[in-house]
Amino acid sequence: MIVAGIWVCYGVPSFFLVIFFLFFLGKPEFKYSFYRVLQCDMTINILCYLNTWISRLYHIETTIPFMIWVHDNAYFVFRVYRFFVNYYHSAQSLSVIIMAAHRFWSSKSTSSNRFWSVYYGHVYLGLAVTSVILTIPNVFLGLYAVDYYDRETGVFVINRLTADKVILGNFTLMTKSLIFFAIIFVLSISTLYLLQKRFPYQTSSLQVKTMMKNLTTIAFMNSFLFFVVLLWPIIISIFVTLSGEFQYNAIMFLSDVLSLSLPYILMAFDKNVQTTMSKMMDSWGPRVQHSGSFTMQRRSNFL
């Protein structure tokens, strides 16, 4: 129950913050095509986060009876959850690659914004199809097993794979993760090089220098965060023997970091977001004061 309380304390506010930013980035101030890409990425993150709660519900004592009913009457829900675990691994990875590719192309060509503004939806449709294609081999090779309810022990347990399938599954996951990370890293480094070549520091305005600094920070943060989230559990498991419960909680936390962190990154490093939020909060100030004055006036009239 303590772990569930932690999930709720940081997860629920962050989840609603992601939803807020999904609509917030639709404001006229965010016309640049990169924000459309961010909105698509947030949509994927929202769906991924919601999918994890199918598993969390049968790890929380108070919701286990309900999940037993689901297990007995709608077991396909467990199969769908396991499929989408693999699906969103690829989808989130490819989305980070798309963001890196957008930055790379934007630093290389002035016409990139026109392309992304029109075809960002087509790009993410391709992402959805590609993620399915990357997930299907795991299904046919049986590289993951669906959890089930063990009535003898009275708990939900992991349906263990054979040793050969575990090795093959880890190898497949590691290979895909390394390929994804390598692509993101190369695109990020190339973007920084092109930006420095296009806008030399000694000739850049303060605005351009600020943009380069922010982009540098966000590029390396995305790559580093992706690396930690996707590879840390595997690397740790190679050198350290961890309990199943600890591994599960660690994976859930790292998944949440990848799914819920984007609004915080934007608030910390995106000047456009900071400026727009500041103006929005300033506009709320007079409304709050006016509402307070109106309420006091009504009370005075009543008295």
From TrEMBL:
<feature type="transmembrane region" description="Helical">
    <location>
        <begin position="117"/>
        <end position="146"/>
    </location>
</feature>
<protein>
    <recommendedName>
        <fullName>Serpentine receptor class gamma</fullName>
    </recommendedName>
</protein>
<comment type="similarity">
    <text>Belongs to the nematode receptor-like protein srg family.</text>
</comment>
<keyword id="KW-0472">Membrane</keyword>
<feature type="transmembrane region" description="Helical">
    <location>
        <begin position="178"/>
        <end position="195"/>
    </location>
</feature>
<feature type="transmembrane region" description="Helical">
    <location>
        <begin position="87"/>
        <end position="105"/>
    </location>
</feature>
<dbReference type="Pfam" id="PF02118">
    <property type="entry name" value="Srg"/>
</dbReference>
<dbReference type="InterPro" id="IPR052880">
    <property type="entry name" value="NRL-Serpentine_Class_Gamma"/>
</dbReference>
<dbReference type="GO" id="GO:0004888">
    <property type="term" value="F:transmembrane signaling receptor activity"/>
</dbReference>
<feature type="transmembrane region" description="Helical">
    <location>
        <begin position="215"/>
        <end position="240"/>
    </location>
</feature>
<dbReference type="GO" id="GO:0016020">
    <property type="term" value="C:membrane"/>
</dbReference>
<feature type="transmembrane region" description="Helical">
    <location>
        <begin position="7"/>
        <end position="26"/>
    </location>
</feature>
<keyword id="KW-1133">Transmembrane helix</keyword>
<dbReference type="GO" id="GO:0007606">
    <property type="term" value="P:sensory perception of chemical stimulus"/>
</dbReference>
<keyword id="KW-0812">Transmembrane</keyword>
<dbReference type="InterPro" id="IPR000609">
    <property type="entry name" value="7TM_GPCR_serpentine_rcpt_Srg"/>
</dbReference>
<feature type="transmembrane region" description="Helical">
    <location>
        <begin position="246"/>
        <end position="269"/>
    </location>
</feature>
